Amino acid sequence: QVQLVESGGGLVQPGGSLRLSCAASGFTFRIYSMAWYRQAPGKERELVARISSGGGTTNYADSVKGRFTISRDNAKNAVYLQMNSLKPEDTAVYYCNARGLDDWGQGTQVTVSS
Question: What is the pLDDT of residues 67-91, one digit of tens each?
Answer without folding.
Answer: 999 999 999 999 999 999 999 999 9
